[in-house]
Amino acid sequence: MSTILVTYELGAGLGHLNRLVAVTRRLEGDHNWVFALPDRALGEPIVRRAFGDKARVLEGVHWPAPRDPDVREIPTHTFADVIGIFGFHDAGRLSANTAHWHTILQEVTPQLIIADFAPTLRLAIGSKVPVVIVGNGYTVPPPGQLLPPIRQHETSVPALSRANEGRLLAAVNAVRARLRGEAIDFFSDLFSGENTFVCTLPEFDPYRRFRRGPTVWPFNIPDVPLGPPVNQRSGSPIFAYLPANHPALPPIISALNDLKLASQIYVSGMTAQALAKRCSATVRIHAKPADLAHVLPNTSLLIHHGGLGTAYAGLLAGVPQLVLPFNLEHSITAAGLEQFGVGKSRPASAAAGAPDVRDLICSLLEDGILQEAALKAARNLVARRVIDPIGEVVKACQQHL
Q1: 347-398, pLDDT tens digit by residue?
Q2: Domains located in the chain, CATH noted
Q3: Which of 198, 174, 168 is CA-nearest to residue 186?
Q4: How many H-runs (helices) and E-runs (strands) does the chain carry?
Q5: Number of Cβ within a 10 Å radius of residue 347
Q6: pTM for this predicted structure
């Protein structure tokens, strides 16, 4: 029996965990499963649904996102700028989180680690235990080199971003020195393992220009059927999915109320009762995450913040999308949708103060060109879809076992 540690450190939603669970459920054999999660209360129900009592769930390392709204004004040109916002350059916090990993590793003694977006673990473990990494394009910068620009329109890296990368690498190697480990040459190496699988569509990979190896068809593309032409769809014309702290949530709710069209909404982090008090009778409230495979093929417009899994689902359903990104990763998702020609985006801050959100939604509902592009993109993805993308990852894991 092998002990396998499964973990991720950064990320507010469940996309990372869902990707890890998809891999682990395919591994054959009577393994001892240990999940170390950054938010145990959030993630443990997902693990229990997949493994029942056969898995052990621990509180892992967590790098919480800063709550200061001014943080969103900090320029982010490379992944170093992004990770720096979480305080990864703080040698004290980095040492404490590394020590927490050592405690877990001494207790668990895994033979294999399957991880997603877990740089502190890579720092702590070195090469003592094989690590298989699965991640999306955003979370896996190309290893063995300085961090390239993360925005598609940028061709060079500002000096301040290079300085941020230098500070991060200095903090990492200061911890490595205390651990008497070898120095790390490139900060980007912390996001790769003995085997690394970049699970994304190329259109959503911010490092597409710089990546040497191929990407893998993403595991978190849900099984969503393509709907009929938009004018033949029978469900609510609008489905909205936004987090409770999204700055554009109030104007979106106001627009849905004013339109008096049948619509549906799910707001993560807000109770259905609290949401219902703000919505009119034409807005159906989802108390829990909606079944996208059922909702989207019958919807004419999907409104969301830019989550990658939601964008994938909308693509497969052939539904036009309005994206309101409020961080860099969401903006990358919005840019990918625009490459397919199926999405329009507006920064969350702009949408929050705009009186014309209602008019924007109306124009998208009537945009026949956008609707045709959405159907075309869905058919394109169906033709491109890989039947068993997880097989390659499972094979790599089994070789280490």
Answers
A1: 877 766 667 888 999 999 999 999 999 999 999 998 998 888 899 999 999 9
A2: 3-219+387-400 (3.40.50.2000), 230-384 (3.40.50.2000)
A3: 168
A4: 15, 12
A5: 16
A6: 0.87
